[in-house]
Amino acid sequence: MATHEKAALAGPARPLGVPEIPQFFLPVTVQTGVYTPRLYGAAHIHFGGARRKFNESRQVAFLLPLDNVGRIVDWDAAVPTGVMPDHLLHEAPRPGSYLPLPAGAMELKTFTRWAKSFDRWLARTQRLVVTPKADGAEEVSVGPKRGGVSVDLVGIAWELA
Asked: What whole-number distance in Å separates Cα of residue 36 and Cα of residue 8?
């Protein structure tokens, strides 16, 4: 969406949505713009176990653009972000206009489905490349151990763009 189209849709106040759906602000990288809602997901992922003889955890976070009309999200379109949950802001860092929230982002039932799909998406897509200790062995890609995905937060993150 072009910048002038965003400005035409934007309003002066942040849409409140449902109180049970967390909303945060991303740290700003620009001085002015329009706040755009993104779906934010963060989790800890644990790989390995006693049988595999390795043990590694990582924290990941992703941002997903929200479609204005849809109630279905495709986490495959998510992009990684370095903004972890403890870096999210509770108040807007700068004044600005706000794009409307999509209908699904204001329905607890739909939002809960989005959060569950984030968990399943992580379990399906997150991989760890392991090099076996034996010389000449090829690298192996493994997924999270069973029960190894722990979702920390799924919420709406407002991005000033």
From this structure: 13
Is the torsion defined by CA of 80, 82, 86, 88 positive or negative?
Answer: negative
Q: Of 55, 56, 60, 9, give the one whose Cα is nearest residue 36.
A: 9
Mapped onto helix, strand or coil, the DSSP state of residue 105 is helix
Torsion sign, CA atoms 82, 27, 77, 111: positive
For range 113-137, the mean pLDDT = 85
For residue 104, what are the contacts with CB-CB under 8 A and spacing of at least 6? 66, 70, 71, 72, 73, 110, 111, 114
What is the bridge-based pairing of β-strands 97-98 and 34-49?
parallel
DSSP 41-77: EEEEEEEEETTTTEEEEEEEEEEEEPPSS-S---GGG
pLDDT at 158: 95
